[in-house]
Design brief:
Largest sheet: 8 strands, mixed
Helix content: 40-55%
CATH superfamily of the largest domain: Mur ligase, C-terminal domain
Radius of gyration: 24 Å
CATH class of the largest domain: Alpha Beta
Number of strands: 18
Shape: globular
Number of helices: 18
Number of domains: 2
Length: about 550
């Protein structure tokens, strides 16, 4: 069966496509019906009808940030209510099977292989028509898994946008949700948050209740317009404190960070509405609203808070979602791990890191060295991210691509088979140069001009773990480094002080003064704080190196 699974993964890799064509279609708003016809045809080629999906009792969730966390909260709540849950999510951190979960667990390799080949072979039988791309295939496969395994409900997370997303083929979800909106996937969704809100509002369905978290007025007005146009009731979620009784109840979240409070409120409303509409117990009790003066006049009505049931209270506390505001302690090393990859999420990451890192330092641990390990992919605003991260006062900034090990070029970015080692290294060197310039602006300390990026790659010895040109005159006052893989970046940052990671060969670093002096400082520090952020794929690769048990 292991062989069948590996064969399935290889076959799935052939469905990788460049997104430019899909992005072009997504920007043409008039093509929504045409794209849904394509998905409908793909379903029918696998033996499914759109009507079959009505059996799945779906909670459909879109948004830019927090939709995965929202689904995780809601899934845990509903599982606590004794329901068999299905969960379709993306991206994955370690294993493709994470995208299709039953009762909170990735499906087994046996089930993955079984349903993969069922779908793939049916599509192959009609190969005069084109095969779907990677995400569409997995979405169609997930529908078949959930139908055949007879789940009670499905948490369905949108892949990108909403209006044109293949998950939007569903006709009758039980309830819809929109998490925090931000600028992301601009090639597909547009350059403004209002454009993005238009796409997200595309999941609304006539007569189906929908909820959103508090957003800026512009996107809220767009969501309101879309809800009115489509014919659904859209409400804003209350603050999490509004669910708590004035005495006795305090809601604790299994996911760290203040930004998770709005995700938790959205999850409560989604679970509460699903349970009510399906006539299930456990949806909590009405409560008398706390009389407060309105601080903001919202363009949409506020949803009512309620007294959460015990499954809800425990569900919020028991929720786990790897790679989001996660801390791993390894003796003198603290890893702070967060897959933030939009401006809002990076701001939230900075607030979280500054708070927890400062609390750790107050415990009197002695001298502390802070290291940033960073990468960003796609059309992200890297300069903006790095500006936001600078107030964290890192002693060193380390840049590396989403590649776990340099040998064999194993890409942690498993969703994009089109990237090359050269492309991702160029991006890292550009990020380093941006960081150096920002540091120069902050400190006003002069240093030698940077070398061209192509020169840095060409002049670096092949196989060298350090790609920074080994010149003592290069950026003398800037403590930044570039490594070709996550493993080498973490080996340098930990200096053999994490038993799970080997130390880097010092002979490979002696030509670079920043690497050599940093190695001494890191070895002598009482404690090392390492923030890993900028990309979920970077985070997934790092977690797989740091804790093999997490991948099981």
């Amino acid at each position: 069966m292991e062989t069948h699974f590996e064969d399935a993964i290889r076959a799935l890799g052939t469905l990788q496509r460049h997104d430019s064509y899909l992005d072009q279609l997504a920007r043409q708003r008039g093509d929504a019906q045409e794209q849904m016809k394509v998905i409908k045809t793909l379903l029918e080629r696998t033996g499914l009808a759109v009507e079959d999906l009505d059996q799945l009792n779906i909670i459909h969730v879109t948004g830019t940030k927090g939709k995965g966390s929202t689904c995780a909260f809601a899934e845990q709540i509903l599982r606590n209510c004794g329901l068999k849950t299905g969960f379709f999510s993306s991206p994955h951190l370690f294993d493709i099977r994470e995208r299709i979960r039953i009762n909170g667990q990735p499906i087994s390799k046996e089930l993955f292989s079984k349903y993969f080949w069922q779908v793939y072979n049916r599509l192959e039988e009609t190969k005069e028509d084109s095969m779907p791309n990677f995400f569409r295939f997995l979405n169609i496969m997930a529908f078949r898994v959930f139908l055949q395994e007879k789940v009670d409900l499905v948490l369905l997370e949108v892949g990108r946008g909403g209006e044109f997303d293949c998950t939007n083929i569903i006709r009758n979800p039980i309830v819809c949700g929109v998490s925090t909106l931000d600028i992301d996937h601009t090639a597909a969704l547009g350059d403004t948050i209002e454009d993005i809100a238009w796409h997200k509002g595309g999941i609304f369905k006539p007569g189906v209740p929908a909820f959103t978290v508090k957003q800026p007025d512009g996107p809220l007005q767009v969501l309101k317009g879309r809800a009115q146009e489509i014919g659904c009731a859209l409400l804003i979620c209350p603050d999490l404190e509004d669910y708590e009784e004035e005495e006795g109840l305090s809601l604790h979240l299994g996911l760290a960070g203040d930004h998770q409070r709005s995700n938790a409120s959205l999850a409560l409303q989604l679970a509460h509405t699903w349970l009510q509409r399906r006539g299930r117990p456990g949806f909590g009790e009405p409560k008398v609203p706390i009389q407060r003066l309105p601080l903001t006049k919202w363009p949409l009505p506020l949803a009512s808070a309620f007294r959460p049931s015990l499954p809800m209270v425990n569900g919020l506390q028991d929720t786990s979602w790897l790679g989001r505001a996660q801390v791993l302690q390894r003796g003198p090393i603290s890893y702070y791990i967060d897959g933030a990859h939009t401006s809002k999420s990076v701001k939230a990451c900075v607030r979280w890191f500054q708070q927890v890192a400062l609390n750790e330092e107050k415990s009197g641990m002695g001298s502390v060295v802070r290291v940033l390990v960073f990468n960003a992919s796609g059309d992200r605003d890297t300069t903006g991210f790095l500006k936001l991260l600078q107030p964290c006062h890192f002693d060193y900034a380390v840049f590396c691509p989403n590649i776990r090990e340099v040998s064999g070029v194993e890409l942690a970015d498993q969703q994009n088979f089109n990237v090359t080692p050269e492309n991702v290294l160029i991006r890292c060197l550009e990020n380093q140069e941006t960081w150096n310039m920002l540091m120069q602006e902050r400190s006003c300390d002069p240093w030698a001009p940077s070398l061209p990026v192509d020169t840095l790659i060409k002049d670096s010895p092949r196989g060298s773990p350090l790609l920074l040109a080994p010149s003592a005159d290069y950026l003398l006052n800037c403590n930044s480094l570039v490594f070709p893989c996550i493993s080498h970046a973490l080996q340098w940052a930990t200096q053999g002080r994490d038993p799970n990671l080997p130390s880097m060969d010092s002979n490979l670093l002696h030509q670079n003064p920043v690497a050599s002096s940093g190695s001494v400082l890191l070895r002598e520090a009482a404690h090392i704080q390492i923030l890993i952020t900028g990309s979920l794929y970077l985070v997934g690769g790092a977690l797989k190196l740091l804790d093999q048990s997490l991948t099981q």
